[in-house]
Amino acid sequence: MSGKCTVQSATIVGVRALPVSVEVAITNGMPAFSIVGMPDASIQEARERVRAAIRFCGFQMPPDKVVVNLAPGSLRKSGSGFDFPIAAAILAASRQIDPDLVTESFLVGELSLEGEVKPVHGMLAHCRCAIENGLDIVCAPSEECAYVADELAVHPVERLSSLRAGGFGRMAPLRVPPTAPAQLDYGDVGGHEVAKRAMQIAAAGNHGILMMGPPGSGKTMLASRLPSILPPLDEAQRLETACIHSIVDDDVESLLAGVRPFRAPHHSATMAGLLGGGNPVRPGELTLAHNGVLFLDELAEFSPHVLQGIRQPLESGKIAITRAAGNVVMPARFMFVAASNPCPCGYHGDPKIPCTCSAAQVNAYQNRIGGPLIDRIDMCIDVGRSEVDEVLDCRGGTDSATLAAGVAAARAFAFERYRRCDHRTVRTVPDMIEVCQMSDEAASLLRAMGKAFNLSGRGIMKVLGVARTVADLGQHEQVGEEDVAEALNLRLRHTGGES
Amino acid sequence: MIEPTTEEAKGAQKAMGFRSYTGPLLEGPRTVIDAGSDAFPEALGAIPHPPERLYVVGDPAALCEGLAVIGARNATPYGLACARRFAGRAAERGIVVISGGARGCDGQAHRAALEAGAPTVVFLGGGCDQIYPASNFGLFQQVVDGGGAVVSEHEWDFPALPYTFRKRNRLIAGLARAVLIVEAGLPSGTFSTADEALEANKDVLVVPGAISSATSAGSNRLLYQGATPIVDDETFDDALHALFGTLKQESVQEGAGPSRDVLLEALRAEPMRLDRIMETVLPRMRAADRTPARVQLRLAKLEQAGLIGRYPDGRFGPLTV
Question: Is residue A174 part of a domain?
Answer without folding.
Answer: no
